[in-house]
Amino acid sequence: MQSIKDRVAIVGMGCSKFGERWDMGTEDLLVESTSEAFEDAGVKSEDIQAAWLGTQNQMSGQILAHAIKTEYIPITRIENFCATGTNAMMDACFAVAAGIYDLVLVAGVEKLKDSGVGFLTGGGGQPSAQTAPGVPPPAQFALAANRYFYQYGLSYEEGKQMLAKIDVKNHYNGSLNPKAHFQRAITEEQAINAPMQAFPLGLYDCCGVSDGSAAAIITRPEIAKTMRDDYILVKGLGLGVGAQQGSLRDYYDFTHFDEAVYSSRMAYEQAGVKNPREEIDVCEVHDCFSITEAITMEDVGFSPRGTVKNDIDNGFFELSGDGPKVNTDGGLKCFGHPIGASGVRMIYEVYKQLQGKADRRQVKNVRLGMTHNLGGQPGSFTGAISIWGTRD
Amino acid sequence: MAGITSYGAYIPFYRLGKDTAGWGRPIEKPVVNFDEDSITMAVAAGMDCISGGDREVVDSLIFATTTSPYIEKQGAAMVAAVVDLRRDIATNDATNSLRAGTQALRSAVDAVKAGSAKQVMVTAADCRTGTPGTEFDQTSGDGAGALLIGNEGVIAEVIDSYSVSDEVLDNWRAEGDSTVRTWEDRFVLQTGYLSVMPEAIQGLLKKVNLDIKDIDKAVLYGPNPRRHAEMARQLGLDAGQVQDPLFGQMGNTGAAYSLMQLIAALEEAKPGQKILVASYGDGADAILLETTDQITNFNGKRGIKGNLEKKRIRKSVGVRGATVKGLEGGPPSASARWRARESIDRLHGAKCLSCGLIQYPPQRICSRCHTKDQWQTVRLSNKPGKIFTFSLDYLVGGVDSPLAITIINFEGGGRGMFTMTDREVEDVQCEKPVEMTFRKLRSSGGVHNYFWKAMPQRF
């Protein structure tokens, strides 16, 4: 088994404005993100030899060809729940590292705001017995929140305050980002007193449901060198798919997500990261809900089990904090969460941070950035991690 | 000797009472929750009846009701599957008459006497709807009873029976009607109830050569307390001979009423007592039973007494037939549901024969040790459980908001995700005990789809 470390470079990226893009369809969003990526990389769509598209709701990779008018090139559509975008990037990286293609486009996109409701309705999927409880995402993650509070003896007030601090941080970061869906800072009181969605998760504990797209142009490092100086390099890629272990094993505790533990371990090993709490400078995590970010800090080794509250109380993950800066672009919470686009959007922020082009939210001396996705629900996830670094 | 070998009952947990907004009467009335119907109540009574007993010896199941959710599709087949009886059994629906319960009892006794069945389970359930505010609305209630009829371990022998068939338009409900209609009260009572039921009772007494004074307990169908009392007077029964008809606590539970009263009588009975059961509806049935010594040692059932005691009063009159809106989905794929019928209807989990982990729903390959196709079936429907974790969802909305979603860990192993019903918000907490209850999830596209839910531990 080989490591992916330093074998693929990103030479250009683009990201659409995220939000309620009533005037933009899926194809429009793809044009917006890929145009920026092409311009950033200094290439044209004719230069692309193959493409990977991450999307949940579009059934085929054709939508990308329809949008940007490629001429009969290989395009593969990837779907892996909320890890879709990262998974698309991952498979594209493998193709480039293998030397099959020299220049590849990776895009993620989702048009969610045509559904008519304000929350995720889930894919239609296979016809079923229709007996499984219809559980919207907030309720799925509330299962983890309530057990986390119970296991670590947090009262509702203590737990709720811990989550509110995450909401406040991500809203502040989002307020520094013109592409974010939500760009307004909030207070702890606002977060705590917001309408309940799924106890104990209130409105501000839940991420935005947004339209958006993000794109990347990747190549091998030796080619990247001829294109620009500030390309970034892949350091590690991890993907861990759950087999419903948590649903089927009655001893699973609902206070950690093994899929994130295993996928981060994979990526750390490739990247040579021994102490993520010290070594990772910025990290975009899958804060679909505030409790997910809290648990993720423990899953990826930033905080020891059961202690994330201390780090949160100390502002450890804030832009001004001492630890890895988490969700510098506002995260899913504020940047928004168009499913297939999210993984690529996270990499976009890491790319900008590594290049020193993150404007008002720029973290100093960023050398190693990481992204994290969780697709599915407590009980069975797809966990995805990517780690990126500056060129030497 | 053919007779009753076991009984069970179900009365909805929630009652209308004097503190219920929109009801406000001093009497209590058990009403089905939005996710209950005659099938789900028959299942609950059947589960009570068979608890601690042997499902393998049951050769037949009858489902008696006037409120079967389907016109064409058997209720008994579903009740039998959900109670987890054998597959090679006879199933029958006894419907369309208030006498369906006692008719089912007669058929069961005949089958056992004829030797065509060792044990027959009779389930009777009803949730009839009357026009709000009418006397019917005040005197009726929802509930179910179940009897096991056999010839070993008999607690009450069925001595004899006598029936009268009578064609009259007194109470009826046509296809498509939601409420019961009746002809003028005085006609109905004089030519119907007050004349036909005594005819059957006298016929029976004459047949067995007994006088009404020889009866220790008379279980009498009655449309309301006044007519019930009038019937007892007319028959020459002393107050002590008459089984409490449970108006104001349980009410007239339709086709299940006579059997539920009989169960209440059995709960108090001593050995060697003669019990008369009389029911009315398109004629009348009179059945004579005599308790045996075995009744002294018979216990452990929730029964009528237990069900009446374990109750909660509703805050407001509920919405019958309403379902949870939002993400609950449409009708099932018949084939997908059929494939999973053992796990959906019978709530069967599977225990890995290699590592012992109980998994729900059953898998081909063990989640823990990866052994393939080595399983032992485990019935989870009658296992108590605890809430491992939960959420209360305010997005889905509908009649049961907030929707309680729970991860249930079963006693002895196994875990599943279930919605929770018959609960207050404060019931939904980590480590709180629950029991499982079979409920209707929704009706959609002409399909009533059922599955198990968790509810606060009632017993």
Q: Report mean pLDDT of chain B, rounded to a whole number.
A: 95
- Name the helicity range of chain A: 25-40%
Strand order of the largest sheet of chain A: 3-2-4-7-1-8-12-11-9-10
Number of discrete helical segments of chain B:
10
Strand content of chain A: 15-25%
The helix-and-strand class of chain A reads alpha/beta
List the helices and strands and how they pair.
The complex is a heterodimer of chains A (392) and B (459).
Chain A: E1 9-15, H1 26-41, E2 50-54, H2 62-68, E3 75-78, H3 84-97, E4 104-110, H4 137-151, H5 156-175, H6 188-193, E5 196-199, E6 201-202, E7 212-219, H7 221-227, E8 232-241, H8 245-248, H9 258-271, H10 276-279, E9 282-284, H11 290-299, H12 308-313, E10 325-326, H13 331-335, H14 339-355, E11 368-377, E12 380-390
Parallel strand pairs in A: 2-3, 2-4, 9-10, 9-11
Antiparallel strand pairs in A: 1-7, 1-8, 4-7, 5-6, 8-12, 11-12
Helix pairs in contact in A: 1-2, 3-14, 5-11
Chain B: E1 3-10, E2 14-16, E3 29-30, H1 38-50, E4 58-65, H2 75-83, E5 90-95, H3 100-114, E6 119-126, H4 135-139, E7 143-150, E8 156-165, E9 171-172, E10 181-182, H5 185-208, E11 217-220, H6 225-235, H7 257-268, E12 274-280, E13 283-291, H8 303-309, E14 312-313, H9 334-339, H10 341-344, E15 348-352, E16 358-359, E17 375-379, E18 385-393, E19 403-410, E20 415-420, E21 433-444, E22 447-456
Parallel strand pairs in B: 2-14, 4-5, 4-6, 11-12
Antiparallel strand pairs in B: 1-7, 1-8, 2-3, 6-7, 8-13, 9-10, 12-13, 15-16, 15-17, 18-19, 18-21, 19-20, 21-22
